[in-house]
Amino acid sequence: MLKRALAIISLLLIGYWIAQGLAGVPFGQDRMLVAQYYLDHVKEQTGAVNAVTAIVVNYRGFDTLGEVTVLFIASTGVGALLWRRKKQRTAKTEGSIVLTTGTRLLVPFVMLFGAYIFIHGHLTPGGGFPGGATIATAFLLLYMAFTTYEIPHKAFEKTEGAVGMAYVLVGLIGLAIGGYFLYDWIWQDWGFGVDNIGRLLSGGFIPIIYTIIGLKVGTELSGIIDNMLKEEVSK
Amino acid sequence: MNALAAIGEALVLIGTFFYFLSALGLIRMPDVYNRMQTSTKSATLGSLGVMVGVGIWALGTDFGSAAWLTKTVVIAVFLLLTNPISAHALIRAAYKSGIPLWEGSVVDKYREHIEAKAKAPEETPKEGGEE
C-alpha cells in the first residue's frame, strides 16, 4: 500500500514536471527552423513526395542504417539467447479449418500489401519498416494457423545478410561517386525521374533502399518469431 | 453530385449507429459468446457502412475522386473477410479454455460432439485440445 502510494505520488510529480516543461512550448505556431528547410527543398533535392521518408533515408540516412543494425542485433541476440541443439515446434492444437483456410487465402494479400507499402515509401505513408513488419505478420499468421509450419531458414538468413550488405553497398557506391556515404547518386547524378515526381519511378534511391529495408525487416522479424515459437526437444 | 454526398452521409450514419449498437451489446450481453456475437456482427456491418459511405461521400464533394472509393472498398472487403475469421478464432479459443456458457443456455451440441468423439475410440487418449 505504501509502496503503491509512493509510486503514484512520484509519478504524479514527474508528470507535473514534464507538463511544466512542455507548457512553454508553443503549439500550432510556426517555429520550424530545420524542418522548414526540409519542407521547402524535399522535392528538388530528393525527388520524394513523402517528406518523412526523404528525411529518414536521404537527409539522415545514418539513423536508418543504425536502426537496421539494431534490428539485426536484436534478431541475432534472440537467436543466441534461445539457442538449443535440437529445436522443434511443439504446438499441439491444430487451428480450425476456418482459420487455416482463411490464412491460406489471406497470406498472399498481406504479403502483397507489405510489398506495396515498402515500394511506395517515397509516395505514401509507410516505408520499409512498416512494410517489413506487415510481411512478418503474414509469416506470423502462418505460424499461428499451422502447427508444423516453419520458414525456410537457410534462404531467410541468406536474404537477411544479402540485403543488409546491399544497403551498405548502395551507400558505398554513393561514397565512390559523390564523395560521402549514402550519397543519393540515382537522383543527384543521374537525375532519374526528374520529370516524374509523384509517380512510382522517382524518388532517387528511396524505393531501392526501402525495398532492401523491407526485405530485411520482414525476414528478421520472421526469424525472431520462429526462434521464440520453438522449444527444445529431447531425443 | 449532391445525391452521392447524401447517400454517403446516410451510409456513414447507419454505420455509426451499428457501431453504437455493437458497443451497447458489449455492455448488455450476459456471457462471452453473446458479447462476441453482437459486437462482431454489428461492428463489421458498421465498418462496411462507414467505409463505403465515406468513399461515396467523397465522390460527391469537389475534391473527391474515384481513388477514395477504390481504397475504401478494398479496405471494406479486407475487413469483411478477416473479421469473421478473427471472431471465430476468439470464440473457439474461449470455448477451448473452458469459459462457461451463460447459465440460461439450454443446449451445448459441441460438448456432446467432443464427448461422443472421445468415447467412440477407446484407445485414443482424451485431450482437451482436440477437434
From TrEMBL, chain A:
* Keywords from the named record: Cell membrane, Membrane, Transmembrane, Transmembrane helix
Q: What sections of the sequence does the record tag as coiled-coil?
A: none
The membrane topology term of the UniProt record is:
Multi-pass membrane protein
Q: Where does the record say this protein resides?
A: Cell membrane
Question: What protein is this chain from?
Answer: Cation:proton antiporter
Q: Where are the transmembrane segments?
A: 65-83, 95-119, 131-149, 161-183, 203-225
Q: Which domain of life is it from?
A: Archaea
Q: What are the residue boundaries of the Na+/H+ antiporter MnhB subunit-related protein domain, all occurrences included?
A: 98-221
Main location as per UniProt:
membrane
Q: Which organism is it from?
A: Thermococcus indicus
Q: Where is the MrpA C-terminal/MbhE domain?
A: 33-86
Q: Which InterPro entries match?
A: CPA3_antiporter_subunitB, MnhB, MrpA_C/MbhE
Record's GO cellular component, any one? Answer: plasma membrane
TrEMBL record, chain B:
Q: Where are the transmembrane segments?
A: 6-27, 39-60, 72-91
* MF terms in GO: sodium:proton antiporter activity
A Pfam entry, by short name:
PhaG_MnhG_YufB
Q: Keywords in UniProt for this one?
A: Membrane, Transmembrane, Transmembrane helix
NCBIfam families cross-referenced by the UniProt entry: CPA3_mnhG_phaG (TIGR01300), PRK12674.1-2 (NF009314)
Q: What is this protein called?
A: Na+/H+ antiporter subunit G
Please spell out the taxonomic lineage of the organism that makes this protein. Archaea, Methanobacteriati, Methanobacteriota, Thermococci, Thermococcales
